[in-house]
């Protein structure tokens, strides 16, 4: 299957700081999604971004498919941003549909 | 907007018992996926259904089976439960899996299964 690597594994920030999370993947992908898993375990869709750049409020994401990486930017972080951020990619061909997840970045934002 | 519904939200079972998890996809979504997330782990793909047919199979134990019904809801049946089956089980749905386009998956809140 496709290997998905996320960095950093852990990130501790003070409220108001900015951060960049990275996702590298080992093969061509059909789609890429970013999720936020909150402390209650829910997976919240942040971005569906197989390529290009998208912005949603304080969050933005960029995927460079030809170079097999994606970046998630969080600006002016808030305590409610805490949780685990997962990158997940959808393979091509016979595994079309299933998502391969990275191990996540655990973000802690202190007031 | 309607989301993916899963039931039950929490389930406690003894070893060797059986469990059934239910998933109701977003209306008009034709594809359902099941994922398992162990403690401190990332979600792992188990199985998927497109238009009521199994479309892909991942690392799902033989003790588990699943199906998608005519109303598109899906059930994951788990037998001879083991301690290692304790996990968060997610169902996700999407609407364009057959085309491979715009196949954004939306996840339900999960069922937290504890096996004692």
What does this structure look like?
The complex is a heterodimer of chains A (111) and B (116). Chain A is mainly β and 111 residues long. In chain A, 0% of the residues lie in helices and 57% in strands. Chain A is globular, with a radius of gyration of 14 Å. With 116 residues, chain B is mostly beta strands. Chain B is 0% helix and 49% strand. Chain B contains no helices and 11 strands. Chain B has strands at 5-7, 10-13, 19-24, 31-37, 44-50, 53-57, 64-68, 74-78, 87-94, 106-107, 111-115. In chain B, the strands form 2 sheets. In chain B, strands 2, 4, 5, 6, 9, 10 and 11 form a 7-stranded mixed β-sheet that branches. A 4-stranded antiparallel β-sheet of chain B has the order 1-3-8-7, with no helix packed on it. In chain B, a hairpin with a 5-residue loop joins strand 7 and strand 8 (74-78). Chain B is globular and about 40 Å long. Chain A binds chain B through residues 30-31, 33, 35, 41-43, 45, 48, 86, 88, 90, 94-104, and chain B through 31, 33, 35, 41-45, 48, 50, 55-56, 58, 88, 90, 92, 94, 97, 100, 102-107, 109-110, 112.
Short account of what is shown:
The complex is a heterodimer of chains A (111) and B (116). With 111 residues, chain A is mainly β.
């Amino acid at each position: 299957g496709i290997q998905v690597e996320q960095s950093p594994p852990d990130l501790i920030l003070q409220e108001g700081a900015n951060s960049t999370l990275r996702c590298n993947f080992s093969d061509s992908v059909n789609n890429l999604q970013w999720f936020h898993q909150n402390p209650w375990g829910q997976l919240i869709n942040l971005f569906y971004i197989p390529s290009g750049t998208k912005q949603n409020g304080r969050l933005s994401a960029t995927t460079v498919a030809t170079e097999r990486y994606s970046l998630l930017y969080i600006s002016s972080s808030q305590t409610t941003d805490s949780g685990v951020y997962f990158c997940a990619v959808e393979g091509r061909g016979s595994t079309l549909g299933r998502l391969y997840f990275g191990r996540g970045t655990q973000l802690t934002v202190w007031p | 907007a309607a989301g993916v519904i899963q039931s039950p939200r929490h389930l406690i079972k003894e070893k060797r018992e059986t469990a059934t998890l239910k998933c109701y996809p977003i209306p008009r979504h034709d594809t359902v996926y099941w994922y398992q997330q162990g403690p401190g782990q990332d979600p792992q793909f188990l199985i998927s259904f497109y238009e009521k047919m199994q479309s892909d199979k991942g690392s799902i134990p033989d003790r588990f089976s699943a199906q998608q019904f005519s109303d598109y809801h899906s059930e994951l049946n788990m037998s001879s439960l083991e301690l290692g089956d304790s996990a968060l089980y997610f169902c996700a749905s999407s609407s364009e899996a057959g085309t491979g386009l715009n196949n954004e998956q939306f996840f339900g809140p999960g069922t937290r299964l504890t096996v004692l």
